Amino acid sequence: MEFGVGYFPTHDGMRPGEIARRAEERGHSALFFAEHTHIPASRDTPWPGGAQLPQKYWHTYDLFVALTAAAEATSRLRIGSGVCLVTERDPITTAKEVASVDHLSGGRFEFGVGLGWNREEMLNHGTDPRVRVPVMTERIQAMREIWRHDEATYHGKYVNFDRIWSWPKPAQRPHPPILIGGGGPTVLDRVLDHGDGWFPQWRDENVFERITELRARADRYLQVQMLSVPADPKALEQCERAGIDRVSTWLPSGPWSRVEPALEKWEAAIGELTGR
């Protein structure tokens, strides 16, 4: 089992390249950045994490700008989106950004994707939340076509284009691993349909039972990575028993003086599990 960290790369915290460099130096295998283009001031959609939404949700750098900085500051660290809200993104532009970061990093990108929880945020990007599942599905399918073919075509209900050229292609062939985030009732269907793995949160309901279900239903190897794992050796042991490929914890956003104690706590839990 590998170990990583997640971080909201805010303009008033550690710079993306610096947090990436520190994570690599300390032996972590991956760093995931969160994404939100904005947060609607109405705050009508409740946040799944509690009543008070942290300010970091609307203070983050652009996801792919932050990932580029992280890629340039490191040479071994896997860098990824935790998660990219493809329901709020143009698929041709996003395919270009994913391929660019993967190419610049030498094939170190992990493409975590999700539907998103904030309905007003989705609506501001022109996506009807009622059709967000087929919208995400078509956008992922269209991006696969762009990455895999010199000349790509896609015709769907929500995505439609004839014969396009788009380079660079990703360094990882045919494309970076697509990790489907979410814990809803149909998420396993999406993982099985168009994912390379599942990317649940620790807090998702019945997550360990559903990992077993996913593997029983799969006709191919699907990796499982988990976000928001607490810095607790017992939690890590439970993940290891479940055969999870990589676990990551969210670090607080802010200066190194705030990040370092949380990182040390995570590393202490890993050390207790592994004996190193």
UniProtKB/TrEMBL annotation:
<dbReference type="InterPro" id="IPR036661">
    <property type="entry name" value="Luciferase-like_sf"/>
</dbReference>
<feature type="domain" description="Luciferase-like">
    <location>
        <begin position="18"/>
        <end position="219"/>
    </location>
</feature>
<dbReference type="InterPro" id="IPR011251">
    <property type="entry name" value="Luciferase-like_dom"/>
</dbReference>
<keyword id="KW-0285">Flavoprotein</keyword>
<dbReference type="Pfam" id="PF00296">
    <property type="entry name" value="Bac_luciferase"/>
</dbReference>
<keyword id="KW-0503">Monooxygenase</keyword>
<keyword id="KW-0560">Oxidoreductase</keyword>
<dbReference type="GO" id="GO:0046306">
    <property type="term" value="P:alkanesulfonate catabolic process"/>
</dbReference>
<protein>
    <submittedName>
        <fullName>Putative F420-dependent oxidoreductase</fullName>
    </submittedName>
</protein>
<dbReference type="InterPro" id="IPR019921">
    <property type="entry name" value="Lucif-like_OxRdtase_Rv2161c"/>
</dbReference>
<dbReference type="GO" id="GO:0008726">
    <property type="term" value="F:alkanesulfonate monooxygenase activity"/>
</dbReference>
<keyword id="KW-0288">FMN</keyword>
<dbReference type="InterPro" id="IPR050172">
    <property type="entry name" value="SsuD_RutA_monooxygenase"/>
</dbReference>
